[in-house]
Amino acid sequence: MSFRRGISRAALERGGVEVKPGDLGSDLEGEFAQAIQHAKLPPPEREVQLVPGRNFASDFVWRAARVIFEVEGGTYSGGRHTRGKGFEQDAEKYNELTLLGWRVFRVTGKHISSGQAVAWAERALAVQP
Q1: CATH (residue range 9-126)
Q2: Among 12, 22, 92, 104, fewest CB within 10 Å belongs to which?
């Protein structure tokens, strides 16, 4: 399976991005994964469940820095992250992660395409907990 810009599972894995079967995620996640690779940032874990007893998967996780990046798609199209139930579930997940000591960053397609998401990741990873 390939992402919109031609990045494949094999290419992500060669670049150090851990990709497990079934967790390739959205095109935006693929674009962010590619941007992380190009920026030569440490490879994140993908789709990690960090809240005990909950089925919450985090998009991009750097455990050593206790940093999580969540890619929020559909921000202008009424996607899951902006509608009632989805928004509430996301808020619950982010609050639980914060209480566990994680720094959670939410990024949109605009943040990814402009390079702002990678700039935030660089800054976040430079500050160790």
Answers
A1: 3.40.960.10
A2: 22
- Averaged pLDDT, 63-71: 96
For 19-63, the pLDDT digits (tens) are 654 445 568 899 999 999 999 999 999 999 999 988 888 999 999
> What pTM does this model have?
0.73
Amino acid at 125: L
Q: What is the DSSP string of 63-126?
A: TTTTEEEEE---TTTT-GGGSHHHHHHHHHHHHHHHHTT-EEEEE-HHHHHHTHHHHHHHHHHH
Distance of alpha carbon 107 from alpha carbon 120, whole angstroms: 9
Q: In whole angstroms, give the CA distance from residue 40 to residue 107.
A: 19
Q: Which residue has the higher pLDDT, 45 or 76?
A: 45
Q: How far is CA 104 from CA 37, 53, 109, 122, in A?
A: 20, 19, 17, 14
Domain regions of the chain by residue span: 9-126
Q: How far apart are CA 3 and CA 92, in angstroms?
A: 29
